[in-house]
Task: inverse folding
């Protein structure tokens, strides 16, 4: 196991770190450019860049150590990634109870279902070196879809309290009263993924395809496989958004069908 | 607690001055709506404090008071859009907590300050309530309702093409389509010009009389209360401070 790690730490790593320093310098220049225009993201950018680098080096070491681990270890890594994704998504949500659990179940439902289907249909090999990177792409997109759907749904509800309560006042069930806003939130969260699919191969050749071609796979097969992954990302995001908004819906109404998320309550949370 | 007991409790102003008897004596008429010790508190803030009253069938009760007096908060408790912290509401002597919220809100309809029409046609808006119960509102019934609110031929219009007064008339027809027993009106004319105000007032009065519908109406306009309501209650800081015949209560104040 440690031999794998030793093999991976060599000239390649030193060259990679040098390239990373160059990338960080470019990011710093852009941050300085933003600051010149009074857009201050210095602190957030510094934290994000440091975290990104440390996390990627860490996952590289984990992969090197676990390269020949079994499906159980791979699943455990994906579970930890799902927890981290839920924590990240939950930080962007205000005014909703149990944000972490809500995000965890939503991301787990979306990414878990799709990864299981890919494993069952053998479009994903139970090999950690493939399972973890592909799984992480699906989880990361599910995380973004989850946060976007919840943020949009919450904003839609707060912007349409009167209309929702007008529906309730006419005898509508909560699910009916918020249905246009739930649809709008799910749609908005899927748009980036739909655009990603549309631009596939035209303006964007994803890393997995490039990696497969570099390592000798047929470019046509690499392209098809990349399409499969993006399609699975779209599916996982759709399931995640639907589950997340349905869970939010169940939390913003009382048992007596009263809308409990209202501007005053939301402001109090801030 | 008998009706007359509750009536005598609520006809006393906060400072102890006894107000004149009501023109519609709840003890003599069928009580449609009754509140018992109704209160709502959000955190430390008291929105509605211990309000008990009765409203008879076919009566129009106005609620007046300054901004922040708790008028709208009280109204929202009547169809359970908000939950009381204590106390309850009886609809035809039945505790409203035993009625499913959807059924309660059909029976206790509400017209809000803003029309809040749903995107789509006027007809779809009017059919919304019955559709929730799986009922299909026939086109002639929709046409009849629109005619009643002075908007004949408006069924196929998109709501985005309506004026403020027209939208409020559609909102009224939409609520009436549910055939409510009690109609709650939260400043339904506050956003309208003077000509539209009188039109909506006459419409509400006409519909209430035709259907012997009980109405509870929040208004900041005392003249409107005089024009429309048999009884008026005055609220201050969430409390009921006076209730009685409109002319006497407003004159007393």
Result:
């Amino acid at each position: 196991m440690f031999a794998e790690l030793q093999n991976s730490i060599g000239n390649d790593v030193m060259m990679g770190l040098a390239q990373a320093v160059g990338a960080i310098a470019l990011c710093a220049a852009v941050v300085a450019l933003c600051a010149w225009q009074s857009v201050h993201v210095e602190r957030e950018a510094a934290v994000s860049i440091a975290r990104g680098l440390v996390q990627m080096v860490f996952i590289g070491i984990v992969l090197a150590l676990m390269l020949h681990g079994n499906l159980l270890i791979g699943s455990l890594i994906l579970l930890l990634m799902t927890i981290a994704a839920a924590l990240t998504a939950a930080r962007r949500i205000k005014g909703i109870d149990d944000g972490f659990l809500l995000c965890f179940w939503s991301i787990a439902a979306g990414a878990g279902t799709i990864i299981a289907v890919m494993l069952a249909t053998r479009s994903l090999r139970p090999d950690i070196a493939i399972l973890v990177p592909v799984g992480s792409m699906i989880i990361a997109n599910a995380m973004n879809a989850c946060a976007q759907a919840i943020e949009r749904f919450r904003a839609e509800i707060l912007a349409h309290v009167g209309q929702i309560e007008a529906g309730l006042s006419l005898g509508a069930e909560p699910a009916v009263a918020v249905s246009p806003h739930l649809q709008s939130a799910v749609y908005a969260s899927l748009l980036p993924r739909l655009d990603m699919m549309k631009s596939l191969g035209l303006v964007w050749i994803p890393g997995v395809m490039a990696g497969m071609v570099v390592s000798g796979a047929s470019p046509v097969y690499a392209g098809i496989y990349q399409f499969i992954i993006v399609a699975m990302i779209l599916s996982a995001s759709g399931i995640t958004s639907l589950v997340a908004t349905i869970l939010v819906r169940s939390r913003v109404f009382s048992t007596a069908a009263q809308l409990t998320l209202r501007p005053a309550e939301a402001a109090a949370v801030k | 607690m008998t009706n007359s007991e509750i009536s005598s409790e609520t006809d006393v102003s906060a400072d102890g001055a006894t107000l004149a008897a009501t023109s519609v004596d709840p003890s003599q008429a069928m009580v449609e709506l009754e509140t018992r010790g109704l209160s709502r508190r959000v955190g430390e803030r008291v929105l509605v404090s211990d309000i008990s009253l009765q409203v008879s069938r076919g009566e129009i009760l106005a609620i007046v008071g300054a901004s922040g007096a708790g008028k709208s908060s009280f109204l929202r408790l009547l169809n359970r859009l908000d939950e009381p912290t204590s106390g309850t509401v009886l609809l035809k002597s039945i505790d409203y907590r035993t009625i499913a919220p959807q059924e309660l809100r059909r029976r206790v309809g509400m017209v809000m300050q803003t029309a809040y029409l749903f995107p789509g046609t006027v007809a779809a808006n009017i059919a919304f309530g019955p559709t929730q119960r799986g009922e299909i509102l026939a086109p002639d019934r929709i046409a009849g309702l629109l005619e009643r609110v002075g908007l004949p031929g408006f069924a196929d219009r998109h709501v985005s093409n309506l004026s403020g007064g027209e939208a409020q008339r559609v909102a009224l027809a939409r609520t009436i389509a549910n055939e409510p027993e009690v109609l709650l009106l939260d400043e339904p004319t506050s956003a309208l010009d003077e000509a539209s105000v009188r039109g909506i007032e006459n419409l509400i009065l006409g519909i209430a009389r035709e259907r012997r519908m009980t109405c509870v109406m929040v208004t900041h306009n005392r003249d409107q209360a005089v024009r429309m309501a048999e009884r008026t209650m005055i609220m201050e800081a969430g409390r009921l401070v006076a209730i009685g015949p409109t002319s006497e209560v407003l004159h007393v104040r």
Summary: Residues 3-252 of chain B form a domain with the Rossmann fold fold (CATH 3.40.50.300). Chain B touches chain A through 27 residues (CB under 8 Å). Chain B has one domain: 3-252. Strands of chain B lie at 31-42, 45-56, 60-64, 86-91, 94-95, 108-111, 182-186, 214-218, 231-236, 239-245.
